[in-house]
Design goal:
The complex is a heterodimer of chains A (348) and B (294). In chain A, 72% of the residues lie in helices and 1% in strands. Chain A has 348 residues and is mainly alpha-helical. In chain A, strands 1-2 form a two-stranded antiparallel sheet. In chain A, a hairpin with a 2-residue loop joins β1 (162-163) and β2. Chain A starts with 9 loop residues before the first helix and ends in a 6-residue tail after the last helix. The longest helix of chain B is centred in the first third of the chain and has 31 residues, at 2-32. Classes of the chains: A mainly alpha (348), B mainly alpha (294). At the A-B interface, α6, α10, α12 and α14 of A face α4, α10 and α12 of B.
Chain lengths: 348, 294
């Protein structure tokens, strides 16, 4: 609680942005995000687009895993379902991107709910394995249903989105498209947890038998969580596909699912800010590593050749260290910083 | 009929390797309810360590293999102490993710040390195939089947009659009750990890005999998941039954369905079965059913 802020209506108490400071922070972030392309070069913008796409996927996974407590090791495959749906619809049936995007989300949501059915009976470990099976099966379909997916060749020449006179085919224009989508996704998610459904998700996570007793329809709620998370994944996949313009099954392997899980763990489970921070953290890691390698190259010649292995090692180490030292992730660290400065310099 | 029996025998042969790998999963799960998703990476590291002793250090095989098992055991002890013990009692996602993180660390570490090229381990068995009915089978498969059977028998006896075995079962059943009876839960966890790593290393040495040693050895960790689920996550005997069943199923489905759908059925059929098992009988064939209370 901030000093000196009194809420006199329920409306004010339920608001998304409750304090002037919060409004100022969000405003600042928005301003920086909009102004970013004015200072950034092509490389940074490219990275920003990819991070934006992952933020959408990570926010979706956090609804399922962080808020509803259902572990999913198949999120990467659902991103792939969205990407392929969108790619096939636009290349083969010449559908406009603006239609293909929501359809990709819906198809991913449908596939996600099918693989969510076992969640009726399975929990924790067993559910994780069931979703892992989903990942393997969907990946297999991408490789072997060649009539639609063209197998390991993948689909190329996916058209960029066109809106009137604007074609979104540069990192700069695509950045704004991604930014708007991320904004909508984050806003919807933040609002979701002020609704009955969002509260039901949290109740299921905390104690699902008890939630059932309190009148939450467990099966329907879990399925909705799977569908919603997969919808976000599908949208992320569609955006990704139209940015890359070429997709292959390799993009959507188990590694991607694991990365998404790592993001929400590093960022903080059950926190929208956390998902965003986690995606940023893992997205920026390659830049940090690249600079580090450039720095170390004179001392250890040939370190570049080990880059992939070192990245893998560090990725695992970071996940483990977060789990051991700060299980609530970056979101908690950020909260701690805010707490510290709230009364600063007059703590105590 | 020859085709059929060929598929079945090939399946049994591959299944014996699965059974060996599945045993490590089951042991850790039975004692500590941790599903070690880094088991495949332990298999790979075991093979590499044996390679380091036998080829790089040129130790004779009778010395190199025990030394490799020792090193892997020590590694597992360190892993358990540093990464798993602090997470006792934490939510299941933390435990799943820590083993996934561990698999990344092991994979990256092995790649930094040994690279990605396939290394060859000196052959332990003669390469002349043995005729099993109509099918020629490489001796290494028969040896791994024998090894799996011996290990399963040994662990069944270990869990049934020996003091540490009973202690491990007690911990798997109820940690609080086991603690109150004077069983050191930490010790049990450590022992389970060491045994699982040693079995993984043995599996790695066997697998290395077949295809050579390279990072893709770790894929066995994923491939045996259907095996442990089918057999039951906490059933030692289930590992061998599940391993052989999945091995046969893989080969039969590939043999009869591949011509229809154009290949690759082998990789996906076990996972399709896995989903079915999870829907119908999540505890597997021989696993313990869990009743949930609030």
């Amino acid at each position: 609680m901030e000093c000196g802020i009194f809420k006199t209506t329920y409306r004010a108490d339920m608001a998304l942005l409750r304090t002037p400071l919060m409004r100022a922070r969000i405003g600042l972030v928005l301003l920086l995000a909009v102004a970013f392309p004015l200072v950034a070069d092509r490389y940074l913008l490219n990275l920003a687009v990819l991070i934006g796409v992952t933020i959408i996927g990570a926010v979706g996974l956090n609804i399922l895993t962080g808020f509803t407590g259902q572990i999913s090791l198949g999120h990467g495959a659902f991103v792939g379902v969205g990407a392929y749906t969108s790619a096939v619809l636009t290349t083969r049936y010449q559908l406009a991107f603006w239609l293909a995007l929501p359809v990709a989300g819906l198809v991913a949501a449908a596939v996600g709910s099918i693989f969510g059915i076992p969640s009726l009976r399975l929990k924790g470990l067993y559910l994780a394995i069931a979703t892992l099976a989903a990942q393997v099966i969907i990946e297999w379909v991408m490789y072997h249903w060649t009539a639609v997916t063209r197998g390991s060749q993948g689909i190329n020449a996916i058209p960029p989105p066109v809106l009137g006179p604007i074609t979104f085919n540069t990192p700069r224009s695509y950045y704004y498209l991604t930014l708007v989508t991320v904004g909508i996704a984050v806003l919807c998610t933040a609002n979701l947890f002020r609704t009955r459904l969002g509260r039901a998700f949290i109740a299921i996570r905390d104690q699902d038998v008890a939630a059932g007793v309190l009148g939450v329809h467990r099966f329907r709620t879990k399925m909705l969580a799977f569908a919603l998370a997969s919808f976000y994944a599908g949208v992320a996949g569609s955006l990704w596909a139209h940015y890359l313009t070429i997709i292959t099954p390799e993009h959507f392997g188990l590694g991607l699912s694991v990365e998404y899980l790592a993001m929400i763990i590093i960022g903080g489970l059950g926190s929208v800010t956390g998902a965003v921070l986690g995606a940023l953290f893992l997205g920026l890691l390659p830049i940090v590593l690249r600079n580090l390698f450039d720095l170390l190259d004179p001392v250890f010649p040939g370190i570049e050749t080990l880059a992939a292995a070192i990245r893998e090692l560090l990725f695992g180490l970071i996940v483990i260290l977060f789990l051991l030292l700060e299980p609530e992730g970056l979101a908690k660290m950020w909260r701690d910083v805010k707490e510290y400065f709230r009364l600063w310099p007059f703590a105590y | 009929m020859v085709f059929f029996s060929q598929l079945v025998i090939n399946g049994l042969v591959v299944g014996s390797i699965y059974a060996l790998a599945a045993l490590g999963f089951v042991l850790i799960y039975k004692a500590s309810e941790v599903l070690n998703l880094a088991q495949g990476q332990l298999v790979m590291v075991g093979a590499y360590v044996a390679f380091a002793f036998a080829v790089t250090a040129r130790a004779p095989l009778w010395l190199a293999i025990p030394l490799a098992l020792l090193v892997c055991g020590a590694l597992a002890l360190a892993i358990e102490r540093l990464f798993l013990r602090p997470l006792i009692g934490k939510p299941i996602i933390a435990i799943i993710m820590v083993t996934i993180g561990l698999s990344s660390v092991l994979k990256g570490g092995a790649q930094i040390i040994w690279g990605v090229d396939t290394r060859l381990f000196p052959p332990l068995f003669s390469s002349a195939p043995v005729q099993l009915g109509p099918v020629p089978v490489a001796p290494v498969y028969l040896w791994s089947l024998a090894l799996a059977v011996v290990l399963v028998a040994a662990f069944s006896i270990f869990f049934k009659y020996s003091r540490p075995g009973i202690a491990m079962r007690a911990v798997g059943e109820d940690q609080q009750a086991a603690l109150s009876l004077g069983i050191s839960v930490r010790w049990v966890f450590a022992v389970a990890w060491v045994i699982a790593a040693v079995i993984a290393a043995l599996g790695g040495i066997m697998l290395g005999q077949i295809n050579g040693i390279n990072p893709s050895l770790a894929l066995i960790g994923l491939r045996v998941l259907p095996v442990v689920i089918l057999g039951g996550l906490d059933s030692v005997g289930g590992a061998i039954v599940g391993g052989l069943t999945i091995g046969v199923l893989e080969n039969l489905s590939a043999g009869y369905l591949d011509p229809l759908v154009g290949g690759g059925v082998k990789e996906v059929a076990p996972f399709a079965v896995l989903v079915l098992i999870l829907m119908v009988r999540p505890q597997g064939l021989f696993g313990k059913e869990v009743i949930e209370r609030v």
